[in-house]
Write a sequence for this structure.
């Protein structure tokens, strides 16, 4: 089946495995061959786990032959971002000082995916400690975008998106502390979602524990729904873990969307997106209107850009974890990362905690705003993919390494569920994403709306030109 097999979606592949039309071992062999084929061009992986993967694939195959009940992800290969722990496997966080670090345990998301029959093929690349929304780090170098090898795939889940978009695995696990699932999905034409904060438990404790999410990256909405169903659970090791049952995200994909109330904001009140990006997103918003949704244009969602609030929290956490390295051997770190971490650690306790209180005020304003809407739509990013080696888009020379991703980090501050939905391509053939935000604990609204859009304007047939 070759390439046709590799670009099948996860739901289809699981059916083939469960129906004994393809064995998990055969599927893994195809994925590893594809990885070896594109890796020299893309640089998606920090560490390979071929032996572990083959053992898991053989176990999944035996379970099918023995008539055992298959898991939700039975026999499906996937990758795990190098910020997420896989027990017994190197976990570098994209950082040279962590080159020899071996994770002690599986993260809950990995543990659950394995329990549901999935097969880990390796750790995907990330920017250093997830600190930059582009795809390079001191330890792994540059990861490239399969739609154009001169362009960044975004970050920090860079290897995850490049591998999924190029057909290595049907899905991947990424992290999102400020947009790191949504950003690269927007730049590579994939669907990615961070569920409500705590829906997918995080352990060991993140360097940014009040912002960090783990989420699925996939080629279709239903694939992401399947994966999110598999990795969501209550876990006592995460004090923020959402208690109670997990919604049926796959079933939500079949719910009607007529009458949904949607806010559409091209700027959120402060962004300055490229006109081409806005035009593509506006066309997508028109599809929701065609589907029977009630769409209201809202220019001013927020009073100001909350980047200063987000930066104080995120970079203070990472900076504290890396304080020894910053003091003793800062040359080991990405210079742009070292600079922003130094700045975060220079703030006084009063300065820091004043922003903590601003965050609570900001969260309440967003909660109040969302009372009138089921969903908020915006561009995921103000630009399409730009050249590798740059930290900010050339169209935004005054931005810092985070402020250019001005649409995504607000919703890590609030914890709302958020996704990036592929909605089109620029004249240069680069993907554009639409950000879809729901009320708290309402991921089902995202899935029903995005699945309806996908049915009306499918995208998974578009494959990057990389061979």
């Amino acid at each position: 089946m070759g390439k046709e097999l590799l670009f099948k979606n996860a739901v289809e592949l699981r059916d083939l495995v469960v129906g004994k039309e393809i064995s998990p071992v055969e599927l893994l062999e195809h994925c590893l061959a594809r990885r070896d084929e594109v890796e020299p061009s893309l640089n998606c992986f920090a560490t390979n786990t071929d032996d572990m993967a083959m053992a898991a694939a053989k176990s999944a195959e035996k379970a099918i032959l023995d008539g055992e009940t298959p898991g939700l992800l039975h026999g499906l290969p996937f990758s795990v971002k190098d910020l997420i722990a896989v027990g017994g496997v190197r976990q570098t966080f994209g950082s040279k000082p962590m080159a020899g670090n071996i994770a002690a345990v599986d993260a809950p998301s990995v543990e659950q995916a394995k329990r549901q029959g999935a097969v880990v093929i390796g750790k995907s690349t990330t920017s250093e400690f997830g600190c930059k929304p582009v795809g390079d780090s001191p330890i792994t170098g540059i990861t490239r975008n399969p739609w154009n090898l001169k362009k960044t795939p975004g970050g920090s889940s860079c290897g995850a998106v490049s591998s999924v978009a190029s057909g290595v695995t049907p899905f991947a696990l990424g992290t999102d502390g400020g947009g790191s699932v949504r950003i690269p999905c927007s730049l590579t034409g994939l669907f990615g979602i961070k569920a409500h904060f705590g829906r997918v438990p995080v352990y060991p404790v993140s360097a940014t524990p009040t912002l960090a999410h783990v989420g699925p990256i996939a080629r279709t909405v239903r694939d992401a729904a399947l994966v999110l169903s598999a990795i969501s659970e209550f876990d006592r090791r995460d004090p923020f873990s959402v208690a109670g049952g997990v919604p049926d995200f796959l079933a939500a994909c079949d719910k009607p969307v007529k009458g949904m109330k949607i806010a559409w904001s091209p700027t959120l009140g402060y962004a300055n997106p490229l006109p081409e990006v806005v035009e593509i997103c506006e066309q997508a918003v028109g599809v929701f209107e065609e589907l029977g949704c009630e769409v209201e244009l809202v220019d001013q969602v927020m009073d100001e850009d909350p980047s200063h609030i987000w930066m104080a929290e995120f970079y203070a956490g990472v900076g504290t974890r890396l304080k020894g390295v910053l003091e003793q051997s800062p040359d080991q770190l990405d210079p742009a990362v070292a600079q922003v971490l130094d700045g975060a650690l220079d703030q006084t306790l009063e300065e820091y905690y004043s922003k903590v209180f601003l965050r609570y005020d900001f969260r309440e304003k967003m909660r109040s705003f969302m009372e009138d809407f089921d969903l908020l739509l915006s561009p995921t990013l103000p630009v399409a993919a730009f050249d590798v080696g740059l930290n900010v888009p050339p169209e935004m020379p005054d931005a810092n390494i985070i402020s250019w991703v001005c649409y995504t980090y607000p919703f890590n501050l609030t914890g709302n569920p958020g996704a990036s939905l592929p909605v089109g391509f620029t004249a240069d053939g680069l993907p554009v994403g639409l950000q879809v935000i729901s009320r708290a604990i309402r991921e089902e609204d995202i899935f029903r709306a995005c699945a309806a859009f996908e049915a009306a304007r499918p995208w998974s047939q578009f494959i990057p030109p990389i061979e």
Notes: The chain is about 40% helix and 15% strand. The mean pLDDT is 97.
